[in-house]
Amino acid sequence: MKAVILAAGKGTRMGDLTEETPKPMLPVEGRPILEHILTGLRDAGIQEFCLITGWKAEVIESYFGDGSAFGAQIDYVRQEVQDGTGKAPELAKVFVGEAPFLLTYGDILVKPDTYRQMLARWDGAELSGLVTVTGSEDVTKGGLFFFDNKFFLQHLVEKPSAAQLEELRTAGWLKSGEPAWYNAGIYCFTPALFQYTAQLAKSPRGEYELTDALTAMLAEDHIMAGLAIEGRWVDVRDPAVLQALQESAE
């Protein structure tokens, strides 16, 4: 298993904090967010990484270098145009080759054991993908995922509106007393993903959406497992979240 980390965005919601520092390099517990992610993946057994950089790319690239100081091998690809999560993984296509890969955003923090659980769920299974979810978030701000009784992905809706949520309740997808599973933004894929990202059209938000590729894969009967994250899951989305993390470490 290889790993691809999306770390190209500026993080505009961080305001002045990212004027000179890319968001994944903001400190948590004395280390950059991205270092927590990379070392957690390394400790789970992954050694080959591709970092997709963009805004202030040189800050990331000079800090991590070739990865040897972190017990890893790191390649870099720069994303010149920020046009959504759907196209960014394609930049790692050469790096991935024929191998399966773990894909994560460079601002999501979990315990290293989460990565181990993902690899264990993947190992020996005939899967095209694996998605992670949490039950603790507002699903209108991200992807809403639905699974069968063996926790294989069946359906998804990206940032559902109140009207869509009501439709999902009426159709029996959303059920009282059951979790509404929120896309946690960490995945495993085979290179089959690239067939579907290559066909993406821009969403109504004007971006290429990774979840649209997942929808297309489901439509063609690709098998994708799910994993509910236990314990820590933090999307370092804004200064308030960052400050809370910094204060909890003091």
Structurally, the number of domains stands at: 1
Uncertain residue segments: none
Largest sheet: 9 strands, mixed
Query: What is the name of the CATH class?
Result: Alpha Beta
Query: What's the total count of β strands?
Result: 13
Structure explained in plain terms:
The model has no long low-confidence stretch (mean pLDDT 92). The two termini are 35 Å apart. By secondary structure, the chain is α/β, with parallel strands linked by helices. The protein has helices spanning 33-43, 57-64, 93-96, 112-122, 162-170, 193-197, 210-219, 239-249, and strands spanning 2-7, 27-28, 31-32, 48-53, 73-78, 101-105, 108-110, 129-134, 143-147, 153-158, 181-189, 224-228, 233-235. It is globular and about 50 Å long. The relative contact order is 0.19. The strands form three sheets. Strands 1, 4, 5, 6, 8, 9, 10, 11 and 12 form a nine-stranded mixed beta sheet that branches. It has a single domain, classed as Spore Coat Polysaccharide Biosynthesis Protein SpsA, Chain A, CATH 3.90.550. It is built from eight helices and 13 strands. Helix 1 (33-43) crosses helix 4 (112-122).
List descriptors:
250 residues, alpha/beta, Spore Coat Polysaccharide Biosynthesis Protein SpsA, Chain A, nine-stranded mixed β-sheet, two-stranded antiparallel ribbon, 8 helices, globular
Topology:
Blueprint: E1 2-7, E2 27-28, E3 31-32, H1 33-43, E4 48-53, H2 57-64, E5 73-78, H3 93-96, E6 101-105, E7 108-110, H4 112-122, E8 129-134, E9 143-147, E10 153-158, H5 162-170, E11 181-189, H6 193-197, H7 210-219, E12 224-228, E13 233-235, H8 239-249
Parallel strand pairs: 1-4, 1-6, 4-5, 8-12
Antiparallel strand pairs: 2-3, 6-11, 7-13, 8-11, 9-10, 9-11
